[in-house]
Design a protein that fits this description.
- By secondary structure, the chain is α/β, with parallel strands linked by helices.
- The chain has a single domain, classed as P-loop containing nucleotide triphosphate hydrolases (Rossmann fold, 3-Layer(aba) Sandwich).
- The protein has ten helices and nine strands.
- Helix 8 links the parallel strand 7 and strand 8.
- Helix 3 runs parallel beside helix 7.
- Bound molecules: adenosine-5'-triphosphate (ATP).
Length: about 240
């Protein structure tokens, strides 16, 4: 099994800039393995969501490479990148990216409609995809039958955040990417959510890359990384001028 020796994420000489802007990201090297739990912190606007977008293959680097389990994302066609993301990554986006006209349960089962691998994984945990969606939702405090069939646009922000979390976790992805996933949750829902996230990551032997503004959460992770220490673009922008 070569895959176990290959880093889950392997970044080399990664540069990214938005059009007509200087480098926002300049990361010489970063690796994470399966089962790593990484907490990424940094000030607002420092590029955390941008880095997650690059790792998820939603954004393209200006130069450099990002390998996911050995596959260089840049070298894949956009269709293959989408397939890899659907099969192997569970992403909780900052703005959730839920489909507003679908119900809670329809949103949660979506990854299993797009990916045979996620569907098969989900069926190893529960008898049906629906049952697996309900198990995750229940663990996140969303078990009310009426709520599960409501359109997500009719939910509170904190409820939508938990639906997005259940959708990311279904079907045991190899990498869970979570961008500020607890920002709208109260302490009790936040703790329930983190417990589930850690358990699901353990069960799937997944890597977990978690961005949050809440420094008190950092102690629950194996590695705590400030983006400013990884990202040389940050030190260049903040060099004292003489
Ligand atoms: N589509 C875009 N076009 C141009 N600039 C962008 C775009 N999206 C983000 N930026 C800029 O890139 C920089 C980094 O944004 P990013 O969202 O990655 O930061 P962040 O660290 O995740 O911030 P926050 O903690 O506030 O979510 C910001 O200056 C932002 O204005």
């Amino acid at each position: 099994m070569t895959e176990t020796n290959t880093p889950l994420i392997d970044i080399r000489d990664l540069h990214f800039n938005w059009p007509n802007e200087p480098d926002l990201i300049d990361i010489p090297a970063f690796q994470m393995n399966r089962r790593d739990r990484v907490f990424l912190e940094g000030e607002s606007g420092s590029g955390k969501s941008t880095l997650l977008g690059l790792i998820a293959g939603v954004l393209q680097p200006s130069s450099g490479t990002i390998r996911f389990s050995g596959s260089e994302l840049n070298k894949l066609s956009s269709g293959k990148r989408d397939r890899l993301r659907a099969d192997r990554m569970g992403v909780i986006f900052q703005l959730f990216n839920l489909l507003p006209y679908l119900s809670v349960i329809e949103n949660v089962v979506l990854p299993c409609r797009f990916s045979k691998r996620r569907k098969e994984n989900a069926l190893q945990r529960s008898n049906t995809i629906d049952a697996e969606a309900r198990r995750l939702l229940q663990r996140l405090g969303l078990s009310d039958e009426r709520l599960i069939h409501r359109k997500v646009s009719d939910l509170s922000v904190g409820q939508q955040q938990r639906v997005a979390a259940a959708r990311a976790l279904i079907g045991s992805p190899d990498l869970i990417i979570a961008d500020e996933p607890t920002s709208a949750l109260d302490t009790s829902n936040r703790d329930q959510f983190l417990a589930l996230l850690m358990e699901e990551a353990d069960a799937a032997e997944a890597g977990l890359l978690f961005v949050s503004h809440d420094p008190s959460l950092g102690a629950r992770f194996d590695r705590r990384i400030a983006l400013s220490t990884l990202n040389e673009a940050f030190s260049k922008q903040h060099e004292p001028t003489s």
